[in-house]
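User: tokens in, sequence out, please.
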């Protein structure tokens, strides 16, 4: 037998990829304390905290509008399962945290979906979990987005639409003002 055959099986590590975006990143550099260059190992029994207090938080955001501790991620294994998950908990008393449309108030927590968007204030974070087998630690790999993760969606018109289904804004665009009509007129 060769040493290759005797070598222990290499275990894969769960990796949490997080892509950060803020519209003022260029001017304010709020992500300057985050390590975007390589993966970081986090012990399985540690809580990964995000916020502005670098003495408490592993991941510091340099912004006075961010809470001292904004949120925390806890790695865990589901009961009677070999599946590993992350739980996200909002630790900000001032700011609600949104995870894929689910709003979390202070101390609310949910399981982090395998792919989701986390939002608070103007911050957008795309989180993607790549599963692994390691029980001792997980890895984080941080990325910086150049464009918004959530694209602005066009809002529906705030003008009322008449029962006929034809919006008066169509006529306004043609430089014609709307005229009042009696509903009994043909």
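Assistant: Sequence out:
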């Amino acid at each position: 037998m060769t040493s290759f055959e005797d070598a222990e099986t290499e275990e894969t590590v769960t990796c949490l990829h997080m892509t950060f975006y803020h519209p003022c990143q260029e001017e304010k550099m709020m992500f300057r304390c985050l390590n975007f260059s390589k993966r970081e190992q986090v012990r399985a029994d540690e809580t990964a905290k995000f916020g502005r207090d670098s003495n408490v938080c592993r991941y510091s955001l340099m912004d006075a509008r961010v809470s001292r501790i904004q949120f925390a991620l806890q790695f865990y294994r589901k009961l009677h399962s070999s599946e590993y998950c992350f739980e996200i908990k909002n630790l900000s008393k001032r700011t609600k945290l949104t995870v894929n449309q689910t709003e979390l108030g202070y101390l609310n927590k949910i399981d982090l979906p395998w792919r989701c968007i986390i939002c608070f204030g103007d911050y957008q974070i795309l989180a993607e979990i790549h599963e692994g087998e390691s029980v001792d630690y997980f890895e984080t790999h941080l990325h910086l987005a150049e464009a918004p993760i959530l694209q602005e969606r066009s809002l529906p018109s705030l003008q009322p639409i008449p029962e006929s289904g034809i919006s008066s804004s169509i006529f306004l665009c043609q430089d014609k003002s709307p005229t009042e009509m009696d509903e009994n007129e043909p």
